[in-house]
Design goal:
Strand 3 and strand 4 form a beta hairpin. The longest helix is centred in the last third of the chain and has 28 residues. Helix 1 packs antiparallel against helix 2 and helix 7 packs antiparallel against helix 9. This protein is about 60% helix and about 10% strand. The termini are far apart. It is an alpha+beta fold.
C-alpha cells in the first residue's frame, strides 16, 4: 500500500510539472489515476513532502545503477548485442544492495543470472569496476572468440590504413603550410582519435587471448 501511494504521488506530481508543456496528454493520464479535483490544470502545485524523501534508498539505487551502466558500457565497447545474456558475478562489501537490485540487473544489464559474493576467481572473465563493486562476466558467454578476433583484426587493419593516410598528409609540408589552420587541426585531431581507437582494439584483442 505504501509503495502504491508513493508511486501515485510521484506520477501525479510529475504530471503536474509536465502539464504546462503537454496539457492534453498529461490530463488524460491524470484522469486515469486516483486524484482529487476535476482537472489537472486546477490541481495544487507540487510541494515537497519529507515523508516521501528516501535519501538512503536513493543512494542504494545509485549503486545498482552505476553497476548496470558500467556493464552496458563495456558490452557496447565489445559490440555484444542485448539479446546475448550472460552470467554476472558481483564481488562487493554491500551484498544486500545488489541482492535488492538483482531484478534490475537481470533486465537492464542483460544478466542471465546474478551471483553475489565477497570475491571471485574468474581468470577468463571480463572485469568491470565501479566504486562499490567489482563485476565479472565470463568471456565465453559474451562473445565467440574466433569470430570477434577476426572482426577486431579487420577493424584494426582498416584503422591503421586510415591513420597512415592522415599521418602522411600531416607529414606533407604542402598540406600543413598551405591548408587552413582549422583543416590542419582537424586532421591532427582525427589522427589522435584513430590512435585511441587502435589502443581500444588492441585492449580488446588482449582480453580475448
Amino acid at each position: 500500500a505504501d509503495a502504491r501511494r508513493v508511486l501515485v504521488f510521484v506520477m501525479t506530481r510529475t504530471l503536474s510539472l509536465l502539464h504546462p508543456f503537454m496539457p492534453f496528454v498529461t490530463e488524460e493520464i491524470w484522469q486515469s489515476l486516483p486524484h482529487e479535483g476535476e482537472a489537472l490544470i486546477r490541481a495544487p502545485w507540487p510541494v515537497y513532502d519529507e515523508a516521501l524523501a528516501f535519501p538512503a534508498e536513493e543512494k542504494e539505487m545509485e549503486r545498482v545503477m552505476d553497476a548496470i551502466r558500467a556493464v552496458r558500457n563495456r558490452r557496447a565497447e565489445m559490440n555484444v548485442p542485448p539479446s546475448k545474456k550472460a552470467h554476472v558475478y558481483i564481488a562487493t562489501a554491500l551484498p544486500q544492495t545488489f541482492r535488492d537490485g538483482e531484478a534490475f540487473l537481470k533486465r537492464l544489464a542483460y544478466a542471465s543470472d546474478v551471483t553475489i559474493g565477497d570475491s571471485f576467481d574468474l581468470p577468463q572473465a571480463v572485469t568491470i569496476v565501479t566504486d562499490d563493486a567489482r563485476l565479472y562476466i565470463p568471456m565465453d558467454e559474451l562473445v565467440d572468440k574466433a569470430a570477434e578476433t577476426a572482426r577486431l583484426l579487420k577493424e584494426k587493419e582498416a584503422t591503421q590504413k586510415q591513420l597512415a593516410q592522415v599521418e602522411s598528409k600531416l607529414q606533407n609540408p604542402g598540406f600543413t603550410e598551405k591548408a587552413p589552420a582549422q583543416i590542419v587541426e582537424g586532421a591532427r585531431q582525427n589522427a589522435q582519435r584513430l590512435k585511441e581507437r587502435l589502443s581500444l582494439i588492441d585492449s580488446s584483442l588482449e582480453a580475448l587471448r
